Amino acid sequence: MRHDFLDRYSRLDSPIHRLPTTVKLFGTLCVVASSVSVSFAHFWFFIIVAGLLLILSALTSIPWKFIFGRLILLEPFALGIAVMALFQENGAMVFLSILVKSSLCLFTVILLSNTTPFSKLLQTMKRLGVPRLLVTILALLYRYLFVLIDEAERLNRARASRTFSSNRRKKWHMLASLIGQLFVRSTERAERIYAAMTARGWK
Questions:
Q1: Between these two residues, 77 and 55, which has the higher pLDDT value?
Q2: In a 3-state reduction of DSSP, which class is residue 154?
Q3: What pLDDT was estimated at residue 23?
Q4: pTM value?
Q5: Within 10 Å of residue 107's Cβ, how many Cβ atoms?
Q6: Among candidates 113, 86, 93, 98, which has minimal Cα distance to 36?
Q7: What is d(CA 113, CA 108) in angstroms, rounded to the nearest whole number?
Q8: How far, in Å, CA of 102 to CA of 85, rounded?
Q9: Cβ–Cβ < 8 Å for 101, 40
């Protein structure tokens, strides 16, 4: 099981890593809020933000390959939303606006998650008065995401050891079956976890 694919470099020693978690969280929220709210007509603003993010990335000692690899991995989600804007009036400009803004937000969140351990983020959120239920849900989501990935890897290994066909259509069919089994197992696990927490007095 890979336990560090989300915040692999969050425990490095760099000037950005040593900053207080509150400062990094507040800075991230400011960048995301300003990127979303500022009009795309002020294109110079987004160039400045991108430049600042690149400078901060250089100070973190996180490999560029990792940062841009994560960005490329998440970019299809931004593209999926942006493409829908092409079908409206002045769609090209709206498409570019959504793509640039979402890319900057993703870049910022990648930097935050890889310069701050997730446990410290949760502690800071709790200290700042974020509802305890939301903090608990985020903690559970983070913890069991790795369990879910481990379950998916076991299912995939079991499928691969029993499959010797190179037929692409059959592979897609088996992949759909694997996703269905993973959904059922994750639902059953969630019910067991909830029952166990309730039995221990959790509300």
A1: 55
A2: helix
A3: 92
A4: 0.75
A5: 23
A6: 98
A7: 9
A8: 14
A9: yes
Please answer whether residues 114 and 10 qualify as being in contact, where contact means their C-beta atoms are separated by less than 8 angstroms: yes
**Interaxial angle between packed helices 64-83 and 91-113, expressed in degrees from 0 to 180 and rounded to the nearest 10:** 140
In the block, residue with structure tokens 């090209």: 92
Could you read off the pLDDT of 28-37 as tens digits, one per residue? Answer: 999 999 988 9
**Residue 8 tokens, joined:** 């692999």
**What does the pLDDT look like over 113-130, one tens digit per residue?**
899 888 888 899 888 888
Amino acid at 136: T
Q: Evaluate whether 120 touches 65 at the Cβ level (below 8 Å).
A: no
**What count of Cα atoms within 13 Å lies in the side-chain half-sphere of residue 24?**
26
User: How far is the C-alpha of 59 from the C-alpha of 71, rounded, in Å?
Assistant: 18
**Spatial separation of the C-alpha atoms in residues 86 and 66, rounded to whole Å:** 30
CA distance 8 to 31: 23
Kindly tell me if the per-residue pLDDT of 163 is higher than 90: no
Domain range list for the chain: 21-124, 131-199
